[in-house]
């Protein structure tokens, strides 16, 4: 069975590939693409900081490990912002800023006031699950009618599965039903989490790529129709 370190390394590699694709698509000018790419970059850094301690003698300093945990909330917030931008919706900047601040303070409390892996894990999963759920709801509510449903249904499915998995994981660690003390340690709960996350997190990025492709096709068709009408208009030179 793959070790947690291998799962985490796989997540980093897949997110790097998705990040490259997204940054290349950012030239399309479609709203939300660059934000999604930035979210993928933040995910890579966050997972790297989370996976690095067992590879280093003495591990990472607590502030660095805290940063990794905070970034695990920031990346999901960026994906949520990207989806809002993609659909031309306003971004609740003040609410997100307050939420991220409270999230960071809660993590800091369980690093500095009381070192508690289970509570930190539950907090991270609560934040990530909330953002994933909001992404699923946003895409479901604002999916354009009369267009191919697959890109949007796929994104809703990935975000919804990620939200449910994090909700389950948050309950498990709030109730202290798993005895591990670090993400890179093996347990049934951790293996399920990492295996589902390996599919659903990159799946959200892939869903965004599919929605971008759908938007680009729509723009191309609209441009072709407009050009055809222009050529048929005798008043145009």
Number of strands: 0
Helix-residue proportion? over 70%
Class derived from helix and strand content: mainly alpha
Cα distance spanning the termini: 69 Å
Number of helices: 7
Which of globular, elongated, flat, extended, rod-shaped describes the shape? elongated
**Taking all residues together, what is the mean pLDDT?**
88
Outline the secondary-structure elements.
Layout: H1 4-25, H2 33-51, H3 62-86, H4 93-113, H5 117-142, H6 150-174, H7 188-232
In short:
The protein is mostly helical. It has helices at 4-25, 33-51, 62-86, 93-113, 117-142, 150-174, 188-232. α2 runs antiparallel to α3 and α3 runs parallel beside α5 (117-142).
Give a description of the structure:
The protein is mainly alpha-helical and 237 residues long. The protein contains 7 helices and no strands.
Features:
237 residues, elongated
